[in-house]
Amino acid sequence: MRAIKGRDTLPEVIVRKWLYANGYRFRCQYRKVPGHPDVALPKLRTLIEIRGCFWHRHPNCSAATMPKTNRLFWRTKFKANVARDARHEKEWTALGWNVIIIWECGLRTENARERTFRQVAKWLAELQ
Fold first, then answer.
1. What are phi and psi of 8, to 5 degrees?
2. Cβ partners under 8 Å of residue 1, min gap 6
3. Residue 78 buriedness (CB in 10 A; 0-12 / 13-18 / 19+)
4. pLDDT at 6
5. How far apart are the first and last CA of the chain?
6. CA nearest 84: which of 28, 35, 17?
7. H helix runs in the chain, sequence order
8. Cα–Cα distance, 85 to 36 (Å, whole number)
9. This prediction's pTM
10. How confident is the model at residue 2, as a pLDDT?
11. pLDDT value at residue 3
């Protein structure tokens, strides 16, 4: 697991390029908020989390598989990840931030990407 990147992953880069191309200015790994969310838009008080379906257990997603070996370890690991995600979301909303979650599977194909970005654009337009 040492080789797993925690930042600047391909899904994060795709989202950041789209945000920049559409005129949104942001901060990466924003340290002024607990948990250091992937992308922060301070002017809109909005945080964007880009989550991997496997690591963060996207419900009803085919990418959220369970490894066949060492199941106890993985079950514990995944449970901790989901609990941490829920805790961070609760903290962020308590601090007055809007939270947008983008799942990795929503960025895999061009059609999925378009749908995802159309929805994100709609949410961000409502916040302005």
1. 55, 35
2. none
3. middle
4. 72
5. 40
6. 35
7. 10-21, 53-56, 71-94, 110-127
8. 12
9. 0.90
10. 65
11. 64
